[in-house]
């Protein structure tokens, strides 16, 4: 199985993930990372999950749930977004929901699985990530897998009336 690692696997979204996705999308502490500005209703999340069966070619995104190998319970989400088939590229983002599950290598394992899937199965030429310059954990995670910083978007995101820089990272499939 391409999306199964030593400790975790990545699976498609299910209708049963409604409360999990609802909790993530409405967690104001991560709105800075997800660029969310308003809460989502359960109704909208339910509609989103009903349309989650669209493949990456239709939806231009792929959102997968991170789970331990012995469980179907979600730990986090990892996404490909802004899929561009003409240029064979997509953005990538990751979130482990509960802080007790962070710093255990789960994000590393999930990112490795999705990079391999993106390059081998989807035949992507490159992946990119937008990371706040003050997000040290994400900066370390992506550089660990060879993502290169190719630029800084100055004062890119306004957070609590403060403009913050965002770095653009790129990984090219050689």
Automatic annotation (TrEMBL):
Name the domain of life this protein comes from: Bacteria
The record's listing under InterPro entries reads: Acyl_CoA_acyltransferase, GNAT_dom
Checking PROSITE patterns in the record gives: GNAT
All copies of the N-acetyltransferase domain together span 8-168
Q: What SUPFAM superfamilies does this protein's entry cite? A: Acyl-CoA N-acyltransferases (Nat)
Spans through the membrane: none
Q: Where does the UniProt annotation place the signal sequence?
A: none
- Name by which UniProt lists this protein: Acetyltransferase
Q: What species does this protein belong to?
A: Flavobacterium okayamense
Recall the taxonomic lineage recorded for the source organism: Bacteria, Pseudomonadati, Bacteroidota, Flavobacteriia, Flavobacteriales
